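Field log, afternoon session.

UNIT: design team B
ACTIVITY: writing a sequence onto a fixed backbone
BACKBONE:
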């Protein structure tokens, strides 16, 4: 069947199904699927519809009524890592590191808006013209960002960052050349020795994925509290795990629960480690204080182009929420964070660990960094892949006290 015929038939079947549904009682998805199947087979009595086309029609109508319409196949495609909708007619996807536009589109602006409302309502959030920006998530943990008109000039904008059903482990990252097995072993010892580790990098560099992989090294008998804007971490194997998520204000501007609120609350919940998904603003001060008050081994991420840039951004974040002398802020940062891991997405679209630096301390007005590993590019392969190695520098690690306290041998 031609695409135009399929589109027309889908609309016809949807109309028939909706007229046949009993809205006076709850109808589960199985009953809807059975109803759609009956209607499709009835239609096939008056016109030829092949077996493959029947399945496609049933699937398309079901997704339109019970799923996320044309997005559902994209959500279910495990090779797609990002979905970008720039209005109802323009959809881009990222697959194997490459971004391409696809022919799929929504029937109308209203249908796209319906899908957006369906997504945000599932996590008790709202978005409208008076509050046109919201972050949400799908049931599988995929991150969702929504921007509506009048802020978005070319129609409703929906961006979905997907995460694999089975989170990537450190072994997976080693196999994909994000880092070496030697460095992975070093990071494992650091996590077990309870070093406070901060992961930084640009958008799409793999910070959340790396944080998930790093969390696999946390001893399984510890009590962990995760704090996120939109819950997307997939920490596994920890039984004593508490997951906290922020809450937006209601239509009256009340009831907001921020990351700052959650960090402060978490300190009264006897955490052994606190994992903050991403630090973006004034909550940086609360996170640093938590790291400085006995919660060693905490992990977090932030946007920055280098470890030095991350330190500067943390200073700025703290200043957004408190009037504190810059010297006091730098001392707080230097005593709270032990290790900064910098990730980058290189020109061949690969994601690599490009630097691991120790926060050595604060002296003469500056925070001193001690680079332990640095990525060195060695050229390109025939298929334009970057060849390079995360090499050990000549610098010796200075803060080895946590290794000693944990009884873990170190080789840095």
């Amino acid at each position: 069947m031609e695409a135009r015929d399929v589109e027309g038939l889908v609309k016809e079947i949807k109309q028939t199904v909706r007229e046949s549904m009993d809205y006076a009682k709850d109808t589960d998805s199985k009953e809807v699927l059975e109803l759609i199947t009956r209607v499709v087979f009835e239609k096939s009595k008056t016109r030829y519809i092949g077996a493959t086309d029947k399945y496609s029609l049933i699937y398309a109508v079901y997704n339109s009524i019970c799923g996320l319409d044309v997005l559902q196949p994209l959500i279910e495609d495990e090779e797609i890592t990002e979905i970008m909708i720039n209005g109802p007619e323009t959809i881009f996807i990222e697959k194997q590191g490459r971004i391409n536009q696809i022919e799929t589109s929504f029937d109308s602006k209203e249908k796209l808006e319906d899908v957006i409302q369906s997504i945000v309502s599932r996590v008790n959030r709202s978005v409208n013209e008076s509050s046109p920006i919201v972050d949400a998530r799908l049931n599988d943990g995929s991150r969702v960002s929504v921007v509506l008109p009048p802020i978005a000039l070319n129609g409703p904008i929906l961006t979905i960052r997907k995460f694999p059903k089975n989170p990537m482990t450190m072994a997976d990252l080693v196999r994909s050349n994000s880092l070496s097995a030697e460095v992975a072993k070093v990071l494992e010892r650091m996590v077990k020795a309870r070093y406070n580790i901060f992961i930084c990098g640009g958008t799409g560099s793999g910070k959340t994925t790396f944080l998930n992989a790093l969390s696999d090294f946390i001893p399984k008998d510890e009590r962990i509290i995760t704090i996120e804007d939109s819950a997307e971490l997939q920490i596994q194997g920890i039984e004593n795990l508490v997951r906290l998520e922020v809450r937006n204000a209601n239509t009256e501007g009340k009831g907001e629960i921020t990351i700052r609120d959650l960090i402060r609350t978490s300190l009264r919940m006897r955490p052994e480690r606190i994992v903050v998904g991403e630090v973006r603003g004034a909550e940086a001060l609360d996170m640093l204080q938590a790291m400085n008050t006995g919660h060693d081994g905490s992990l977090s991420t932030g946007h920055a182009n280098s470890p030095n840039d991350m330190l500067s951004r943390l200073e700025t974040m703290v200043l957004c929420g408190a009037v504190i002398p810059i010297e006091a802020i730098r001392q707080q940062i230097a005593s709270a964070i032990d290790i900064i891991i910098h990730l980058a997405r290189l020109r061949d679209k690969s994601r690599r660990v490009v630097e691991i630096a120790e926060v050595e301390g604060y002296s003469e007005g500056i925070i001193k960094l001690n680079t332990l590993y640095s990525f060195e590019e060695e050229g390109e392969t025939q298929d334009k892949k970057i060849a390079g190695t995360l090499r050990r520098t000549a610098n010796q690690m200075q803060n080895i006290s946590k290794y000693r306290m944990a009884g873990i041998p170190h080789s840095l």
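LOG NOTE: The first strand starts at residue 80 and ends at 86.
NEXT ACTIVITY: expression trials, pending approval
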